[in-house]
């Protein structure tokens, strides 16, 4: 009993070291964290709960990659609020206070032979491990990634390496093709491409239009509702959404649901209520003494 308590005490006191850090664009950071117990069990679609420091809030971040051999877990995050701002200031060799997981339900990949993955913005970080697993299983993966402009493009080479076909779209045409991800998906469907499933991950408005498109083609579509998660437990109610007329919680019952049954208008309205608060908290922590240089 004493040995078990001692081990538990040591685990609670454990800090998680940042082994690698890279800025993918002006607002998005890739970070590898040494967390062997998480890396040993992680699967695509799952997330971790972390605290940047002892006084920090708990936030969920989806696992972007994991390596059981090295014990490292990769997260990719956009600086939008106080905690992600604090996290972005940490560098290789620094510690993260807490890094708990893996949590959430893994993405279902078994039995899928032809899949279209439609991702937007930082949602590409969530989609990549799914593409990697499907590709490793021998599935045909058609990946479509959308960004506002060339300066925001991330993970392009990684998607190319893990998909049978990769289409890059930008709103302004500064990289890849000009247009929306739905333009590329519609073209593939009109060409006669068939899919066991379409998986969409990204901004809520993008996922709404992807699901609206595939509904007309009768293609099963799964939407990842990671963008609405806040505390990662379902207790805060921020991840509450309506699916097929019933209240569901993305943190504990998802994060993936049948995209044709999600009330996206409700989810978009609820998510928008936090933007002003996130901006104020991010600005309030930019105080003298903070390190302003990112790796």
Largest sheet: 7 strands, antiparallel
Q: Helix- and strand-based class?
A: alpha/beta
Low-confidence stretches: 4-12, 287-295
Strand order of the largest sheet: 6-1-2-5-4-3-7
| Helicity range | 25-40%
Q: Which outline best applies? A: globular
How many helices? The count is 10
Round the Cα radius of gyration to an integer and report it: 19 Å
Q: How are the SSEs placed, and which strands pair?
A:
Layout: H1 2-13, E1 16-23, E2 28-34, H2 36-39, E3 47-51, E4 59-67, E5 72-78, H3 82-89, E6 95-96, E7 98-103, E8 114-120, H4 123-136, E9 140-147, H5 156-161, E10 165-170, E11 177-178, H6 181-190, E12 197-201, H7 204-217, E13 221-224, E14 240-243, E15 246-249, H8 250-253, E16 256-258, H9 264-272, H10 275-284
Helix pairs in contact: 3-10, 6-7, 7-9
């Amino acid at each position: 009993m004493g040995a078990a308590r001692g081990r538990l005490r040591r685990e609670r006191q454990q800090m998680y070291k940042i082994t690698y850090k890279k800025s993918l664009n002006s607002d998005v950071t890739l970070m590898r964290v040494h967390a062997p117990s998480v890396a040993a069990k992680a699967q695509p679609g799952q997330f971790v709960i972390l605290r940047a420091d002892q006084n920090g809030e708990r936030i969920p971040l989806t696992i972007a990659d994991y390596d059981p051999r090295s014990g490292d877990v990769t997260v990719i995050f956009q600086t939008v609020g106080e905690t992600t701002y604090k996290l972005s200031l940490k560098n290789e060799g620094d510690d993260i206070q807490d890094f708990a997981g893996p949590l959430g339900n893994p993405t279902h990949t078994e039995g899928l032979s032809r899949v279209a993955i439609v991702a937007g913005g930082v949602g590409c970080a969530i989609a990549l491990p799914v593409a990697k697993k499907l590709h490793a299983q021998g599935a045909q993966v058609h990946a479509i990634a959308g960004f506002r402009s060339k300066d925001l493009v991330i993970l392009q080479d990684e998607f190319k390496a893990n998909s049978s076909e990769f289409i890059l779209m930008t709103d302004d045409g500064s990289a890849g093709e000009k247009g929306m991800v739905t333009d590329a998906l519609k073209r593939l469907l009109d060409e006669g491409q068939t899919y066991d499933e379409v998986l969409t991950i990204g901004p809520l408005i993008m996922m709404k239009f992807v699901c609206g498109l595939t509904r007309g083609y009768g293609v099963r579509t799964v939407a990842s509702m990671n963008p609405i998660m806040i505390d990662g437990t379902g207790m805060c109610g921020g991840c509450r959404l309506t699916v097929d007329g019933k209240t569901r919680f993305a943190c504990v019952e998802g994060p993936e649901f049948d995209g044709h049954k999600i009330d996206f208008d409700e989810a978009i309205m609820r998510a928008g209520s936090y933007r002003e608060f996130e901006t104020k908290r991010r600005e309030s922590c930019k105080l003298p003494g903070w390190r302003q240089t990112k790796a």
